[in-house]
Design brief:
By secondary structure, the chain is an alpha/beta fold. It contains 13 helices and 15 strands. Helix 2 packs antiparallel against helix 11, helix 5 packs parallel to helix 7 and helix 8 runs parallel beside helix 9.
């Protein structure tokens, strides 16, 4: 009967069969081991050092890693839970709003861990959803295009540069398409809250023939080879990775304010092995795990125990109030309201055309 129910469920939901899981066998080599199931939006090559680190500390655990889009993670956890099935033991996603909604709607369970009380208050929602990374939205620029002047360091300077350069930069500016990019929409919604003149920025980009993309890579690739001179609100972790490998890519943390997003980890309510999910989350929050993330994944760490340049602590000491982390709270769900979301997207499209 259970097999029949599962068969019918997946027959009716074929999209759930699309994910191709990657198996990391237990390091102990034993056959009779437990399996940790992870649903994640972090590309597998980036996730691998963290998984290997976890397995060194837990050699008798196999990891089944399912790399998928943020919306797919949310939908799959909801559908599997509502169907009475088991789901992932750990979910890790850059869609802060969807992760908080899972937590708020009872699809995640509480995880009281050694670092819970020491975790920054903005990064912990009721010991259920934890921000595990610290990733600013940055300006990126093509260094050879700025040999005679500095790249813009505020939104006002960004607008001024576009207006002064005119035809020289037309069609050579990139940013996220907020209709297709969850991160792009998150950054835009925070811009609207933080900056009263944000629509002047959007209008100036529209007049400059801005190109819209759903991924960071598409923009960074064009900045690296000079097709683009500027990219707006680009996820800093990807920008840093590209800058490390492409010397013509420059990065600016906007001085007026810098929005900081985080990837959120949680243990689903219907996890098959919630103890393994909590063990992985605990490793993610540990000094060792956060150090791996900062040094090997090149993603800034949140933990107050980790020192070094690529950490929230150091960045906050250097930049102070310039950084505006997005708090892990129900406030993130405001723009999941379809009416509010549609209004913001409609205004975005309207203002981009006003030129």
């Amino acid at each position: 009967m259970r097999f029949l129910i599962s068969f019918l469920f997946f027959a009716l939901c074929p999209q759930l069969l699309l994910a191709a899981p990657i198996i990391f066998p237990a390091l102990s080599g034993k056959a009779d081991v437990r399996t940790l199931v992870v649903y994640s939006s972090l590309d597998e090559p980036l996730a691998k050092p963290m998984i290997i680190g976890f397995q060194r500390a837990n050699p008798d655990v196999t990891v089944r890693y399912e790399d998928m889009l943020t919306g797919e993670i949310y939908d799959r956890i909801i559908k599997e839970t509502d169907a009475g099935m088991k789901t992932a033991d750990f979910a890790f996603s850059s869609a802060m709003d969807l992760q908080v909604k899972l937590s708020n709607d009872g699809y995640a369970q509480r995880s009281d861990l050694p670092m819970s009380d020491r975790w920054p208050a903005w990064a912990n929602w009721r010991n259920t959803a934890y921000a595990l990374t610290f990733e600013p939205a940055v300006f990126v620029y093509h260094k050879p295009s700025f040999t005679k002047e500095k790249p813009p360091s505020t939104r006002a300077e960004f607008v001024d540069h576009l207006k002064r350069q005119g035809a020289a930069v037309f069609g050579r500016i990139g940013t996220y398409d907020i209709e297709r990019s969850g991160v792009g929409f998150l950054f835009m919604s925070r811009d609207q809250e933080q900056f009263g003149d944000i629509w002047d920025v959007i209008q100036a980009m529209g007049a400059a023939g801005v190109k819209l993309y759903s991924t960071s890579e598409a923009i960074l690739e064009r900045v690296a080879d000079g097709r683009f001179v500027l990219g707006y609100n680009i996820l800093g972790s990807y920008a840093a990775d590209w800058a490390a490998r492409h010397p013509d890519v420059g990065i600016v943390l906007p001085k007026d304010y810098t929005v900081v997003m985080s990837r959120i980890g949680l243990v689903p309510q219907a996890a098959a092995s919630p103890d393994l999910g909590r063990r992985y989350l605990e490793f993610f929050m540990s000094k060792e795990g956060q150090t791996i993330m900062a040094r090997e994944l090149q993603i800034p760490a949140v933990s107050p125990e980790v020192a070094g340049e690529n950490t929230a602590n150091t960045m906050q000491e250097m930049l102070g109030g310039q950084l505006r982390p997005v708090p892990v709270s129900p406030g993130l769900m405001v723009y999941l309201d379809q009416v509010k979301r549609s209004r913001l997207i409609a205004k975005w499209n309207e203002v981009l055309r006003l030129h």
